[in-house]
Amino acid sequence: MLVTCQQISEAETRLFSGGVSAEPYMDEAGRQCAEAIRQFFPEPGRASVFCGKGNNGGDALVVARHLKTWGWQIELHFLQSPEERSPLSRKKLAEFDALEDLPPGPDGVPHIIVDGLLGIGASGDIRGPMREATDEINRLRDGNFATCFAIDIPTGLNGDTGVPYEGAVRADVTLSITATKKGFAADEAVDHVGRLVEIQLDIPIDDADTGVRFLFPSNLRPRLRRRDFNMHKGEAGRVAIIAGSKGFSGAAILTALGASRSGAGLTTLYVPDEIYEIVATQCPPEVMVTRRSGFKENQFGKADVIAIGPGIGTGHSRKKCEALHDLMRNHPSPMVIDADALTLLAQAPEALTHLPANRLLTPHPGEMARLSDERGARIQLTRKLADEWGVTLLHKGSRTAIATPGEPVELNTPGTPGMASGGMGDVLTGVTASLIAQGHSTHDAACLGSWLIGRAAECAMIREGIAAEALNAMLVAEHLGHALKELQTPGTY
Length: 493
What we know:
Rossmann fold; UDP-N-acetylmuramoyl-L-alanine:D-glutamate ligase; 39% helix
């Protein structure tokens, strides 16, 4: 759900004006924020913590206290004198100071920034000492490649519109407390919000917008299907993958790897004869590789789901294109349609409105532009076209949007700029097909698959100790199991 800043303020006023103390909520918010930071940085390093005078600064001090107990070296930055700070903020500073300092850590430890300058009540351009502080945060982030965590909202971002004011903090991770702000969903906000984390507090909010929501473990974990102890591979789903062509064997292999590493019981990869030997020797050994001669329906009759498109090419004969269109329109099994299959589908736009409802289309922005002349904000465009075509639409990007008729638009939260490299979409196609084969709806498979591949990318960077630029699709696929295990485990952010 999405809320306005006023709705959150009114909810807090109702709660705390009734005699409820704000301090336990600050302590819990700070604890969860610190735990979320530790998920990204399991080993301690150096933290530059910027504290405002109000509750946002108090939250940051609670975070700093927990990090200090875990061995982090903390540098506190204040804009106001002690007498200008709120009583609760002063109390949290005293609790921080009461902890014994630990010896400095080794050189080269990770450097993080905690933005606790301003909360949701701020508005307007940033000036004076506050501007100097936000400039310093952004300078440290860019110059030191430090990771910036914003407490509740990046300083200088309008929480209702998502428009950043001049000098706004560019956070890598935003730790959103109680509920996600409406502005976080705006296209303009992505580079300031970054990765979004849910910090849950039990504060009731009236009239939240339920037509759009972000994907968090709290709303994804209940959708996961638990396996029976006596399940066999046939019950775990049969995935048929139609992928690859000369020069694009990697797309087929990555799609198969995505399906295999996300739980598919039986995965069969159908490739043209010209790349059969290459794929058969490089594919995961559990994947069955079969020659295909075209796109005739009767080849794939026993599949629980068909994934089609990665690397199949677009230079097919008219007869083969017609067979492909017939397959996408008429095969009874659910289907994930991606990459070249989307491009070929765009050549017959009338086919888009005649696809069965059990189709999941996974276009990136370029493919979306080929499929439709419509333009607009990501949420509205994804909503409109999914309803118009009557399918599940997974609009890929740094804030992937998923829409299905009758369901809310859902926005993905994990991921990293390191995913801006070839093959990620192929892995995602395999993952979503696997989840459909295991019994998830096309909508839930799209949501779960988007979250899993984003978190797998984060896990790969953390566990391998690599920079975002070194990330590749193979590494992401190999870390899908870690992401799935985290999603199954309460306490994951």
